[in-house]
Structures are given as structure tokens and as C-alpha cells.
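Before our next group meeting I need something from you. Please put the record directly below this note.
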Amino acid sequence: PTNSWYQNFLLMKDDQEPSQLQRAYAVPYMIDVVGAIPGIRVQQPHVFGMSTVVQITSVVQHGLTLGGGPPLNNPAISPISKRFSVHEMTPLGLTLEWGKKDTSTHMSSTIVRGMPYVTMHYDEVTSDSELLP
């Protein structure tokens, strides 16, 4: 969809890892997918307005990352890829997925414009997986 507020999530080549370009301003949050673990990183932007400039900044260290990684006690299990897929798109938002539904490493998150809170849905998680936060 042209001119969608979440279009930056769709601008990634098939063989590419997510970068700072995959960011959306869901208002009131800034959402991206380039945190330390696979998943979404949510930040509260700070808006500075002057007579000729409006600037949005955020402090990455103050953000919240929802996602999952390999078990800390068993590094032999491969981690979830940071690469996501788009499961569903509507004019108001989209659903991102990581991993495969038939494995124990599947998670998804729906990002909606104007969302009051952020969620991550974990499917079939075993006791060997570490959930963060």
C-alpha cells in the first residue's frame, strides 16, 4: 500500500536483515525491529518544536523490546531469525511474525496506529525457550 504509515516495514529485500530503516511511528510510540533480540522495540519519542523546525528524538536505551531468544542454558539450539514476515495488512495496521508456526519458536505482534499498548503473542513455547523481557 502506497503512503501507509507502516510502509517502512515493507521495504526490505528478501535476503536482508532488518535495519534502522524498518521503523514506523504508530503514535504515541515509535516501533522498530532492530533490537538486540528478534522482536519489536518500542520507544517513546520526544518531540521538540521550534518556530521553524519540528524534531523527533528517542533514547534507544530507554526502549522496551518484546521478543525471544535461544535458551541461555542451551546455546546449541538455534536462535530465532531477526528476519520477520508480514502476516496481515489492513489500512490501520499490520501483523508481523517471526519463526515458523509449526515450531516452538514462533511469535507475532500486531502494530496498529494509535495503539495504547504493545503486545507480543508467543505460540507453542517450550520450557527450553527464554522469553524477554
About this structure: The longest strand covers residues 106-112. The mean pLDDT is 80. The radius of gyration is 16 Å. The CA atoms of residues 75 and 107 lie 20 Å apart.
